[in-house]
Every structure is written in C-alpha cells, then in structure tokens.
Amino acid sequence: MINWLLKIPGIKSRRGAMAILFTFALGAAANTIAAKFFSDAQIQFASVKVAADGFRARQLALAGFQAGLAALRAAPEEYLYTSGLALKPPDISVSADCKPGCFVSYRLLPEDGRLNLNNLVHSFDDKPNEQYRAVFKRFFPQYDISQENVDSLIDWIDEDDSPTGNGGENSYYASLKPPRKCKNFRMFSLGEITLIKGFTSDMIFASRAPANWEKTQKELSFQTEDEKNLITMDDWVAANDLTAYVPLGDRMEDKINVNAARYHTLMALSESMSREAVLALFKYRRQKGGYIKELGDLRNLPEFQRKTPADITLFDELAGNAGKLAGLLKTEGEIYRIVGVGTITSGSSSSDNAKGAVIRRVTALYDKNNNKVIYYSED
Questions:
Q1: Quick one: which of 157, 187, 182, 178 has its CA closest to 169?
Q2: Which residues contact 244 (CB under 8 A, 6 or more apart)?
Q3: Do residue 173 and residue 250 come from a single domain?
Q4: pLDDT at site 379
Q5: What number of helices (H) and strands (E) belong to the chain?
Q6: Contact, 326 vs 256, CB < 8 A?
Q7: Residue 107: CB partners within 8 Å, gap ≥ 6?
C-alpha cells in the first residue's frame, strides 16, 4: 500500500504516505462513529417520540373516560339507550393543533347485562348459588363448553378446600407444572378464568361460531331484520356475555339487565326460554327505542305466557312475581364499564395507518347507584 502511494505525484517519502494512510483511517473511523451516532440518535428519537405519543394518547384516553363518566352521571339511563349515540359515540378529532392526528372516544357498556361469574357462590354463606349453577349449565353448552366446568368455577371462588363434582381445589392446582394455588376468593376480572381447570383462552375469548355459520346466515335473505340481528358474530364470543366483578360492600346483584342482555344469556335464564321468546323480546325492545322501562310490559308478549315445569308462566319465573322463584331480570342498569380510548395516528382519521397508531385505553367499572368507581385500569 505504501509503495503504491509513493508512486503518486507529490508524495516523496514514506512519512508522507503514512500521514495519508492515517488521514484515511481517521476519516473512516469518524464516518463509522458518525454513522453509529446517527443510528443511536434515530433510535433515541423514535423512543422519545413513542413515549411522547403514548403520554398524549393516555391523556386523551383519560379525557374519554371523564366524558363517559360525565354522561353516566348527567344523562337519564333511558336516554343513553334511546339516543343511539350515548353508549357508543363516534371518535372525536381533538383539534387541528394536535398533530399528526389525535382522537378521543369512549364506550359505555352495561356490565350487568352479562352473567357475573362471582354469582355462582353466595357471599353470605359461601355455598353454591343453585339457581345460577343451573343458568351456567345451560349457558356453556351453547359454546360447546362442558357443563362440568361450572364445578371448576365454584371451587375457584368458594373459600373451602373440598372439590365440587369434577372441579378442582388446591390438590389439583398444586399438581400442575408449574404448580399454582386455587384462589378461593371472588374473581376481579374475567381474564382469571384462563387459570381455572378446564378453561382455555380460546373457549372464552375466541369465536365459537359453528362452521360456515356466517355464510349460512347470509343465505337466509328471507329473514326479517329482527331475525338477522338475533344472533351476530359477536354473540359467539362467550366473553361478550360474561363478567367478573365485586360490587361495593360485597353485595352481589344476580339480576340481569334486560336492556343489555344478549341472546345466549337470555336463553340460559330458563329451561323454558325459547328462540321465539328472545326474538319477541328483542323486537319489543327495538320498538321501545332500545329501552324497556317496565319489566311488566313483557307480560303482554304471548311467548312469555307459556307455562314452565314449575307451573308458572315464563314471565313470572323471570320477573319473580310468583313467589316460587327469585326473578332474574331487571330493567335498570347499575354497573357500567367505561372505556376511554386515546389514539395518535399519522393520518386524518382514527383508522388511518392503524398499524402505526399509538393507542391507550382507560377502563373502569362504575357503580351508578352509589356514584363510585369500583375498578380502574390503564393499558
């Protein structure tokens, strides 16, 4: 290399050649250092940007949560349903000054339209709630889940260490690899169910629709709109019908909000419930703008006048007016799930560049009657 440099005009000595080589090496090193510095700077900038966008999205999510909370506190419940927008308003673009794209929204979900897993065990004596056990034994087979899983839920919640039927207590969970303990207490979130004997995530959080169900539905063009909306794809996800929370004062409310209940929940409330009865209820609910104010209105539906094995009408069984069975239906909501969502995108709408969007959520359970938040989380 040095001999080659000595042939270049103007370079007369080995020392000059060495100086040029040193200069080349120094330049190469400087270039490498600069490239590494630029790469690190890019990574740091991207990290700071994500953190900044995440903070902004969180603030937007908090704003959405506050808006939902204000709606629950200020608006009559009937209006929340009949307005058509109050429970699920559209995304709101914050302002032109918030760039690239800043959006806030909230969702209000009536939580007591779902089956609360904690109702399987009485809070006052730690014994199984037989009425709810029967409900869940009708509910699970609709999703091709074994009825035996009801025993597993009871054992997970009750405080004793005696197995119920085919359930599992500490001896079962200690034998797992890795081992774990049976909770023997109320569940605070639906996600806990994946820890319980017999359950998997797919059972509860994935669609359990029969093969080609959606295709078959599209072919039934002769159905009325009420029939088409009786069961949707969302109804085949069991999580949409289930919840797990502990209300204030450990007071369990086992009645189902008829204005928020889905098809499979209603079908599970009585062995005498029929598809025709649920269809009639949904149709009547739609005619009332989405909100049934008086439970007694269902008495006038012929489908709710059929006799049950207890020799009372289906309406009396569900409303609890006959004195033989405690009713399972109510019309007023008590517990609402508020989900505030903040979104930062590079486009002009909240759906633009969804893969690159920064999204934060604030989720809370709100006890409307007691004006208290009983659960809160951020993600």
A1: 182
A2: 116, 117, 118, 186, 187, 188, 189, 190, 192, 193
A3: yes
A4: 86
A5: 12, 9
A6: no
A7: 68, 87, 88, 337, 338, 339, 341
Q: How far apart are CA 14 and CA 6, in angstroms?
A: 7
| Per-residue tokens: 1 | 């290399």
Question: Which residues form the domain of 30?
Answer: 2-46
CATH assignment of the domain containing 210: 1.10.40.60
* Within a domain: 129: yes
**Distance (Å, whole) CA 147 – CA 271:** 15
Question: Quick one: average pLDDT of 30-40?
Answer: 55
pTM value surpassing 0.85: no
Q: Quick check: 290 and 81 in contact, CB under 8 A? A: yes
Element (H, E) at 155: helix 149-157
Based on the structure, what is the number of domains in the chain? 2
Quote the distance between the C-alpha of residue 88 and its chain's center.
Answer: 14
* Mean pLDDT over the full length of the chain: 84
Q: How far apart are CA 157 and CA 185, in angstroms?
A: 5
